[in-house]
Design a protein that fits this description.
Helix content: 40-55%
Radius of gyration: 17 Å
Distance between the termini: 21 Å
Number of domains: 2
Bound molecules: zinc ion
Structural class: alpha/beta
Largest sheet: 4 strands, parallel
């Protein structure tokens, strides 16, 4: 399932990428462009904008009503399903696919020294090369997700 997210839902876009969904989020797109891209790429629109949700062209559309991220995730609970999905599916910056960084030496210059020594597993974005590891921020997000999706 692929999504396109309106400008008001940037944080939700980040979360969905962490969950591994292919999410297009581009602040420069206007409503018409957003709907057109959704059609071209067969993406489900996620929006808080009634103007977008009401348009006929926006056929596959999820309308989110709350403005808190945890509530938004809860609204999408049915779609997201179990909380057992692995986090870190896609790059939160650019939506690129994440792959295991096998060679730890390559990672060394990309992360702080203590991170390199503390964590064993790293992921790297195929597109922008951003490096990810399972730090405290990651654990916090995982806990939040488990609470929301329970
Ligand atoms: Zn990236």
């Amino acid at each position: 399932m692929k999504f396109i997210v309106d400008v008001m839902l940037g944080r939700l876009a980040t979360w969905l990428r962490l969950l591994g969904y292919d999410v297009l989020y581009d602040r420069s797109m206007d409503d018409r462009q957003l709907i057109r891209r959704a059609q071209e790429e067969e993406r489900t629109i996620i929006t808080r904008d009634t103007g977008i949700a009401r348009r006929k062209a926006a056929r596959h559309c999820i309308f989110v009503t709350s403005d808190r991220i945890t509530d938004q995730l809860a609204e999408m609970k049915q779609l997201l399903g179990s909380s057992e999905r692995p986090l870190r599916g896609r790059c939160t910056q650019c939506n690129g696919e994440l792959v295991c960084a096998d060679n730890a030496e390559d990672i060394r210059e990309c992360v702080p020294e203590y991170v390199y020594h503390t964590y064993a597993r790293f992921l790297r974005c195929r597109k922008c090369a951003k490096v990810y590891w399972e730090g405290s921020h990651y654990r916090h997000m995982k806990e939040t997700l488990q609470q929301v999706l329970r």
